Amino acid sequence: MPRTAAPPLTSPIPRVADSDRRRTSASVVLRSVLEHGPVARSTIARLTGLSPASVTDYCARFAELGLIRESAELRRSRGVGRPHLPVDLDDSRFVVGGVHVAVPHTTVALLDLRGRVVARREVKHERTEPAVVLARAADGLAALLAGTPGSRSLGVGFAAGGWVDRDSGTVVEHPLLGWREVPVREVLGAHTGLPVHVDGHARALVNAERLFGGARGSRSVLHLFAGNVVDAAFATNDEVHHGPRSQAGAIAHLPVPGGTENCDCGRVGCLQAELSERTLCRRAREAGIVDGVNPMHVVGAAAAGDPVAVRLLLERSRRVGRAVGLLLDVLNPERVVVTEIGIMYREDCLTALREEVEAGRAATVSPSGFPDSVLAVAGGSVALDVLYRDPLGASPEAI
């Protein structure tokens, strides 16, 4: 009986591994340019552990794609040796679109490759049906692109609160908007003709902080978002945890001891019901401080010296601090970033929040690095994270 032939030595597995390795290497090279540019190729090789030849090859490809360029200034390494031309990001050609859907409005924006907001606008929700909101967001992006001649979009990032499934590009559930199983990637892609990347806003902001903010270089980062929606995200070893169908970070219905607010789920004292900006504004209206639903009006009243507005903001920051303390105990991250309106604009609120955290960990907690553009950055960072993870896969439509 003839012997069975041995399988060929070349199998699909090494090719997949090689592809992953090339994508990872390309990612670390471009992120080194982002973090250290203008930077010499030899320095990139030293920082990344890649060979000088590999770094040169990746940089040549990035230059062809228009992602980097050589600096005009010759430099010498420590003042000696042959001068070199360092490379830096080329932030003059490409942008990404950003869409963040909040409860009262949608923020649309354009961001450059450094995560800086080039243009943005808010589109108030006259109606909240998904088709209407997404069509108006696409129109808003088109208007922004028309107003920035010379810029080409690599794609669109979409972020929202609630349950957002990154892999399917779907908002599975957003109770405050009444959205269920909304195929955002498909709908927004059909409107814009561009690649669309979708994620939850807390995870988007973790990536923004790691790429462009104060958490750059941290081995593990927790982000807590306290707006109308309250949720969290956790990243370790440069990976954000998503969980099955991206359900990780759903903390809205954690019970708050002593909580008194009725929640839409039928219980009393859920974290989101206690901390949401809707609750803050309602309490401010009851106190006669404001007559609307904009939490910035509460911040403005506090800045004008209203003691009740100050008290409401401090109380909310303390509640957020207690939530941070619980999550610190569970996850033990190296850094904590909190997006909460009080601590982003008032030092006394940040102090109040940190006082609720274990003394030895308080200094690890900081406010968002994007206080004036957090929603715009959230949307755009979904697309920028994809770019920096796979820069050689940048949209051929744009390039």
The CATH H-level homologous superfamily of the largest domain: ATPase, nucleotide binding domain
CATH architecture of the largest domain: 2-Layer Sandwich
Helix and strand pattern: HHHEEEEEEEHEEEEHEHEEEHHHHEHHEH
Instruction: Write the CATH fold name of the largest domain.
Output: Nucleotidyltransferase, domain 5
Any idea what the shape is? globular
The strand line-up of the biggest sheet is 7-6-5-8-12
Q: Explain this structure to me?
A:
- This protein is globular.
- The relative contact order is 0.13.
- The chain folds into 3 domains: 44 residues, Arc Repressor Mutant, subunit A (Orthogonal Bundle), CATH 1.10.10; 128 residues, ATPase, nucleotide binding domain (Nucleotidyltransferase, domain 5, 2-Layer Sandwich), CATH 3.30.420.40; 152 residues, ATPase, nucleotide binding domain (Nucleotidyltransferase, domain 5, 2-Layer Sandwich).
- With 399 residues, it is an alpha/beta fold.
- Helix 10 packs across helix 12.
- The strands form 5 sheets. It has a 5-stranded mixed sheet.
- 41% of the residues lie in helices and 22% in strands.
- Strand 10 and strand 11 form a beta hairpin.
- It comes from Streptomyces violarus.
- GO terms for molecular function: kinase activity.
- Belongs to the ROK (NagC/XylR) family.
- This is Putative NBD/HSP70 family sugar kinase.
